[in-house]
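tl;dr need the bound structure. longer version: we got a ligand (zinc ion) that a collaborator sent over and nobodys looked at where it sits. i said id run it. heres the input, straight from their email, havent touched it
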Amino acid sequence: MTEPVAVHPLVSPWGRFGLYSFFIDAPEPAIVDTGIASSPAEGMVPALEAIGRRIEDVRWILLTHGHIDHLGGARALWELTGRRARVVIHEADAPLLRSRRAHVDQYVDVRQQYIDNPDAVEEQTQAANCVISGEMEPTMLVRGGETLALGGDVTVSVHHIPGHTAGSVAYVIDGQQSVFVGDAVQIHGAANGFPGYEDPAAYRSSLRYLRDEVRPQHLYLGHPYRNADGVPFGVELDREAARNALQGSLDLEARIDDAVRRYFHAGLRESDSVYSPFAPVAEELGYTGDPTLEPSPFFTTMHGHLTQFNQTS
Ligand SMILES: [Zn+2]
């Protein structure tokens, strides 16, 4: 590799969140993650114009995972490229690109059982309809281990890093260890103040894999995640900050795991608390955020720990 490949963050605001996509300025340009339906036209087009690039020249749409705020803009972006960009996603999260209904089903399967909101399914359905620009079949399904050729001598390798979702992947610009992880490194969570992951054991081993094997020189995050004091990390981390983010994520997962094991052994009790039936866990961890605010990382993560506990004890 001669010159390092430039990476530009593309930001579009959405409610409590900043949605981050990243432009990889390769001979065949790529965009990692797509925000929501409005993001390509409103966020990406002007941001690319400002650096002298055109959205119709983008040739790769690299999705880190299937959540609506990462793939919601995929169809719209693909259309803006004249349907010429290849759309890449892990096969385990591909159903979320093919179907809006799959997002509602995920809510019903997990979070609905903890959140007392009779309108939630209607709200989830509306959100999927507004926020996702269109259902589509991906061009390329990956499992991890693939290498994508972005023209010249630029290659991007795909690494499966499940945990946040089953189909989370990291894209790595080879030779400069620029690593795009979407939401797979949660630290203390984003606006909601709690890390969100579906599968605790997978989350832990993916974090270790990133720390010990991938060893990012530059780490690009999907949101400004926070440290223990609630201070946001940026979304572009250097080597030192990347190590801190990975270690901080591992440390918090270990604390949560320790707390849930003790309380799950003692038996879960329903209560009037909004954290029910995990109120003692929230109290021990000092979590005071609103666990009903979607996407509700607290209940997603607690459900993951409970599933793991039930399988191993
Ligand atoms: Zn996510």
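gonna send this back to them w/ a short note. The mean pLDDT is 95.
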